[in-house]
Design goal:
Radius of gyration: 20 Å
Distance between the termini: 48 Å
CATH superfamily of the largest domain: Type I PLP-dependent aspartate aminotransferase-like (Major domain)
CATH topology of the largest domain: Aspartate Aminotransferase, domain 2
Bound molecules: 4'-deoxy-4'-aminopyridoxal-5'-phosphate
Largest sheet: 7 strands, mixed
Order of helices and strands: HHEHHEHEHEHEHEHEEHHHEEHEEH
Structural class: alpha/beta
Shape: globular
């Protein structure tokens, strides 16, 4: 039956291992440190705005071009609305960029390890992924990325799953050297010290992506923003689904941007917890990279951490383990509340002896 069904799809899709998202368990309550969600709730203003939008108008389609959200985002980030596109999560924006820019056989370049969805999106397009390994300290391999000069180059900054950052000046140097599009995936940037957004105004080949899933505590609403030149955004708009954000998502995103203080307060708490958790993990003998995201990559070189991830799960603590050669000796741990991090440390300590 399965073999039979496969003949309906393209060979590239048959060969594809679909992206595997982190576990979202329904069966019991876990200390959930595996998918980089925010442990704190969204702004009460967001909840109120969404409640107020659950009305008869839901029978009508949403605004296809997110006019009010883009106006508000333009005001907050200093862009014209024509330079902004809204997505159903930043995953939607990543997908439409690859769809718009990479034909079969085109080269899409990124350092590894990074966000593994890029591989899936490139494969769907029958394009060619060119991976450049990061060195152990996760310095961006600029020379190799320049040399490969992809139709699209992805730089995830802060990088996932390392949490490390590349200085904006280095990203600018790369942008100026590339002939294709440079996509800076800033899903975690609100937890970091610097943003590449100003580059969008200086470099016509730079697109910066943001999400409301992490710092704004809205992973469940699926909202992302893309910033680029008006000309690039116009092209991307041709590729997107007409109604890619629901009425409720649009309302939630706009309200979230009207209460930045709420997001910033939660970011400050998470950064404080991140510093404490990093120290405690180091004290347990793990190698911890300096993280500017809301997660920490903790390593024990040469030790496969898969059994530790499973043992933590049995004790009710979920963290992320990547079963790839370059990440098997690591766990990616989302920074939760202080209490959640304490529960993780209590469970982890005896497993590391
Ligand atoms: N980029 C990176 C690096 C991520 O880790 C994620 C979350 N998995 C995303 C983009 C997508 O986020 P969302 O679709 O929730 O906006």
């Amino acid at each position: 039956m399965r073999g039979d069904a496969q003949r309906f799809v393209r060979p590239g899709i048959r060969a594809l291992h679909g992206y595997v998202p982190g576990e979202q368990p329904r069966d019991r309550r876990y200390v959930k440190l595996n998918t980089n969600e925010n442990p704190y709730p969204p702004s009460p203003r967001v909840i109120e705005a969404v409640r107020a939008a659950v009305i008869d108008d839901l029978r009508l389609y949403p605004d296809p071009v997110a006019t009010e959200l883009r106006r508000k985002a333009g005001e907050v980030y200093g862009f014209a609305p024509e330079q902004i596109i809204a997505g159903n999560g930043s995953d939607d924006l990543l997908a439409l960029i690859v769809r718009a820019c990479a034909s079969a056989g085109d080269r899409v370049v990124y350092p590894m390890p990074t966000y593994s969805l890029y591989d899936t999106l490139v494969a769907i397009q029958d394009a060619e992924a060119a991976h450049v390994p990061f060195p152990a300290d996760f310095t961006l391999p600029v020379a190799a990325l320049r040399q490969l000069d992809g139709r699209v180059t992805f730089v995830c900054n802060p990088n996932a799953p390392s949490g490390t950052v590349t200085p904006v000046a280095v990203i600018e140097e790369l942008a100026r050297a590339l002939s294709g599009l440079l996509v800076v995936d800033e899903a975690y940037v609100d937890f970091a010290d610097a943003t590449a957004l100003p580059l969008v105004q200086r470099c016509p080949n730079v697109v910066v992506l943001r999400t409301f899933s992490k710092s704004f505590s809205l992973a469940g609403m699926r909202i992302g923003l893309g910033f680029g030149s008006a000309a690039v955004i116009e092209e991307l708009n041709k590729v997107k689904d007409s109604y890619n954000l629901s009425r409720l998502s649009l309302v939630a995103a706009t309200a979230a941007l009207e209460d930045l203080a709420w997001m910033q307060r939660n970011v400050t708490r998470i950064r404080t917890t991140r510093a404490a958790l990093s120290e405690r993990l180091r004290a347990l003998g793990l190698q911890v990279l300096p993280s500017q995201a809301n997660f920490i990559l903790a390593r024990r070189p040469g030790r496969n951490m898969g059994d530790i991830q499973r043992a933590l799960k049995e004790q009710g603590v979920l963290v992320r383990y990547f079963d790839t050669p370059d990440l098997r000796d690591a766990l990616r741990i989302t920074v939760g509340t202080d209490e959640e991090c304490e529960a993780l440390l209590v469970a982890l300590k005896p497993l590391l002896v």
